[in-house]
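Q: Can I see a sequence and its folded structure?
A: Here is a first one.
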Amino acid sequence: MILDIQRMSTEDGPGLRTTVFFKGCNLSCAWCHNPESISPRPDLFWFAQKCIGCGTCEGSCSRGVITREQGRVRFNRAQCAAGTPAAGDCRRCVEACPNGAIELKGEAREVESLCGELLKDRAYFGPEGGVTLSGGEAVLQSAVTVLARLLKEAGLSVALDTAGAYDFRVLEGILPFVDLVLYDLKIFESALHRSFTGADNRLILENYRKLMERGSRVWVRTPIIEGATDSEENIAAIGRFIREAGPPEKWELCAFNNLCRDKYERLDLDWAYKTAGLTRKEHIKALTQTARALVPSAVWSGSTV
């Protein structure tokens, strides 16, 4: 189940890359920048600026899951079967909308077909680039291992972007076909991690140790989120852990941005960070100093104020 394919990416591993975003995630981070990737099922986006209020979408839905309230189109998502076999791959509201105000996010793809499409991009990868498998949480779909093997056999560099919140056996099968693991370490304190992501971090920390024991090539990424991950104590705790478990090739502190705010509106969801601004440069530079004192490869990235 594919969410999106992003080409010419420079932020998901070395060189120029094509990033494949898979749907479905077993974490629910409060700051998630891809909320449409959390559910493993297809999701409907509604674009307010495109909607002309004609009501065609309501009339097209045989299940009656579409209503209008105060000028907004709302979907009963629990009852909606858009893009699922339960309703014969229903997407009637998408097709009926005369102005393209409804889009279906999530498409089932055959592995061989997807691989063939990705191989067409190899001309611009250069010596360092390749394909990054991201999400959601890509490894939760078993077919992703098959895709990684096909890409590797075709001579492409493969990176895996993962949060590591699962049994290590889930990861073991794909590692022989992966050149780089982009590994999220968000919050070190377990109870705080659970409060912001919906799960504790025991497996995440265990799996990081096992990756380093195997000699895997790893880049650690830590999102800098105000009030959640951005304390000196949290960065120092993560730094001490990865220094002891095995330092990565790079530790990247990623500045917060609010570019995903419209996604929450299109999903009719509230977002705790909708009024939050960009990370302050002085703050992330200070955090990077703390990180670099423990792990010399630490850097920061992203737009700041």
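Q: Show me another, different protein.
A: A second, unrelated one:
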Amino acid sequence: MRIEINNLSKNYGPIVAVKGLTAEINDGITALIGENGSGKSTLLRLLAGVIDPTEGQILINGSPVEEKQTPVFFLPDEPYYDVSHSLVSLKRIYASFYSFDEERLAFCLKQFGLNPKQRLSSYSKGMRRQAMLSLAIASSAPILLLDEAFDGLDALSLSFIKDQLLMVADHKAIVAASHNAEAARSMASRFLLLYKGRLGQDADSADFGANLVKYQALLPSSLTPTDLEELGLQVVLFRHLGSITHFIVKENEEGIARLKEAYKPALLESVPMEENETLAAELALTKKEGRIDE
């Protein structure tokens, strides 16, 4: 499966939601990440053909997305369904567009303990999310577009969904927008980072955050990021917490050597970054390096 995004823009009156975006998406799991208002949901709606672009074009296997020759399963952040439906009756509606792997669907529903004959009104928000993800994963659609689909899932459910998505990712193009950086990192092979509707970074999972290092050190409380910059370090994030200074920089052994020489800290060690820190640091670096014009 090949999705080509060519110079794509979407305006809502004076508001620019997506601007000049160009990328290519193939089979596998692509994580769409960025701050609130970065254009993630708009991009997914454009990919689904729910809305039309202001400029640019989307091609799916060479055909314009509006021709809808390729089935797309779009799961929005707030999916609409009549809660008087059961999952069985809802599946009948979707069956007009897709076939389903009945064995996989039954396995997912059993794992979640969902009775497909119950009305959706009897499901909690998390259960409805489990049900819709089960339908998406078991569908024949070669493209899955998931907008904050992991919101409200407990850790066990999230782990199961991750495993199921990885099992079908070799023959489906899956684009998942998520604020859950840990979940995205654990399943995605590729990251598209959006900032104010523009593409700030397109990176394989192994490369995302690979050139960033987090340190903790005993340094003067008067120390500022500018002081570190003067030593040749490119500071991405910086903060004092009590007597400890935490900072994330682009990897630079010579700059760290100059820091040791200048301040002779009693403590200076690299420490692992949390996934959300990696996301925040990559976004800050994207803006700092001017990959995106403010």
